[in-house]
Amino acid sequence: MNLIDPKKLEHLRRERQRWEATTLKQSLKSQPERVERFSSLSDLPIDRVYGPEDLKDFDPQRELGVPGEYPYTRGVHPTMYRGRLWTMRQFAGFGSAEDTNRRFHYLLEHGQTGLSVAFDMPTLMGYDSDHPRALGEVGREGVAIDTAEDMAILLRGLPLDRITTSMTINAPANVLLAMYVAAAESMGFARTQIGGTTQTDMLKEFIAQKEWIVPPRPSMKLIQDMLVFGTRELPKWNVISISGYHIREAGATAVQELAFTLADGIAYVQAGTEAGLDVDEFAPRLSFFFDCHNDFFEEIAKFRAARRLWARIMRERFAAQNPRSWWLRFHTQTAGVSLTAQQPLNNIVRVAVQALAAVLGGTQSLHTNSMDETYALPTEQAVMVALRTQQIIAHESGLTNTADPLGGAYFVESLTNTMEERAEAYIQKIDDLGGMVRAVELGYPQREIAEASYHYQQQLERKEQIIVGVNEFLVPEERRIPLLRVDPEVERRQIERVSRVRAQRESVRAGRALGGLKSAADGGGNTMYHVLECVKAGCTLGEICDVFRAVYGEYREPAII
Amino acid sequence: MANSKIRIIVAKPGLDGHDRGAKVVARALRDAGFEVIYTGLHQTPEMIVNAAIQEDADAIGLSILSGAHMTLLPRVMELLRANGADDIVVFGGGIIPEDDVLGLKGAGVSEIFTPGASLEYIVRWVREHVKPRGVNA
Question: What whole-number distance in Å separates Cα of residue A203 and Cα of residue A205?
Fold first, then answer.
């Protein structure tokens, strides 16, 4: 059934033509439009006005359905935020495990409902704090974790059975997950009680974020091992969070973010089924992570299209039976790249607009950026404003009273259709290349993103896109705001701690655990159980990752500009 | 044109993978007529200085967003001096607080471009400040 019957539609089309020839023509004569071409932030053409005639084949039952039912365009839950608000989850981590643990307690005391851990660069790359490549990087962009002991300090006093923890970790996600399990067990929690997410999305690392250890194919093997382990052992853990955020921040358009993220998702579902799992065993626990940029309607359309596309992919391509496998549940972070160093207070407004779009798009959890993040990690005061922004939207704006409030708006539905069509074309192209792993090896998404980001930068230079305070409305200003500084002592203390763990552990057990891991990696067995034994034996992150480097080799990216 | 003789190494020291800025700037410099060699990610100061000397570079552009700039950039300057190559002009960009910009300039970095710097501005600066090595500026 179409939205409007064909006869009425024909009448509306004639009315539109009449309007264009008369009222509009007159108006343009006296007041021409500000620019010749109106486009979205991602450079999609945007029309003057949208009406029913723009949705001529639109079947509300097929394209929208109802909230909580296939294809989930209107949201994954029947009552959306009337039932439960989104999780307010601020990403945090800096300095030592003690520093970050204090920040977590602070955030929980102020009403945050989930934790999100940022790790420092050496941890992300699988190096210990005393590795020469870690020089100057320890605890800078996140917390340094070398051993299970550091993880136990990070989680000290936290109610792990009542909160969920998201860990932004990819290449060594298996090691950090094992450390989390070991720490939780030592605190008295069972594996079945702990809930959370590891990002574990290596494809987007090769595409955009670029923190890696071993090449794409062995990376996929390690992810398969984690999927199998998670499915069997950790009923409340989401092993993979398929992430568009970094893809977007690296310069992708909204369409590219959507398409590449879902194509990554397809590759992981394939990997899971190839590892012998039934799709409905693990797909319900796949979750997603998107960026929310400045273009309000484009972002809302992106989220709605994502849900619809994924539901169809899971049902049609993978023949998933469990409705939960069709769900695209997602976390959102407002766009870090949209923040400006100039007039930083303006960032509070940008973040509020982006957060509104994320909520109107039906997000399950949200991180709002702090206004000072173009300078350094955020101060407590800046984090507080960011969290309060979410609370104001949740409790004061009235947005949470109804599911998908923009559903049925001609513009929003039309844009949702456009996002979906263009993303499908990209997914088809990636299928033709042989899937995302192959596309990544060929550098295809990397090149598409580099092109898009250069195009955008040129638009900024020509002022075809305006950023307030950067290429328009500039004021002379002193760029000094209070900043969070990481104490250089952190590096020294962390190096001491990892050396002490190595010296004090039972070396025979540690050596045996690393040997067992190497045999499993060599022989194609499930490595995850061995990683868990390694961390319990006091092996360090770097030692465990060295086993993978030795067996699979290190990834080197061809440098293309 | 003098531009065609100028060789610039664009490098990413440190472990962060944020290469959007490095790539965009490398491409803008190339489009402006400079010869640009992009080293790729995760470079140590030693790797960068070796590359600059081997490639006979006139300038090095360093992009860093990992927070380790106060360790890694002065180390690049130190290695250039140790190799008698401190006439190579070094400029940088990234998430670098104002106070650190002063410190880095004190260490011999010629310019730091912070968020919001336009490509046109960067290209103009390079044109004005980088001359072929061995030629008096």
Answer: 5
**Residue A258: C-alpha distances to residues A237, A325, A370, A424 (Å):** 24, 18, 25, 9
Nearest to A559 among B14, B28, B39 (CB): B39
ipTM: 0.88
Query: Residues A408-431: pLDDT tens digits?
Result: 999 999 999 999 999 999 999 999
Amino acid in the structure at residue A496:
E
As assigned by CATH, the class of the B2-129 domain is alpha beta
Looking at residue A284, the DSSP 8-state letter turns out to be G
CATH for A60-339+401-461?
3.20.20.240
List chain B domain ranges.
2-129
- Residue ranges of chain B whose CB lies within 8 Å of a chain A CB: 10, 14-20, 23-24, 26-28, 30, 36, 38-42, 44, 66-68, 70-72, 95, 97-98, 114-116, 118-120
Query: Alpha-carbon distance A403 to A149, whole Å?
Result: 44
Question: Which of A63-77, A366-380, A438-452 is least confident?
Answer: A366-380
Three-state SS for A323-380 is HHHHCCCEEEEECHHHCCCCCCCHHHHHHHHHHHHHHHCCCCEEECCCCCCCCCCCCH
Spans of all domains in chain A:
60-339+401-461
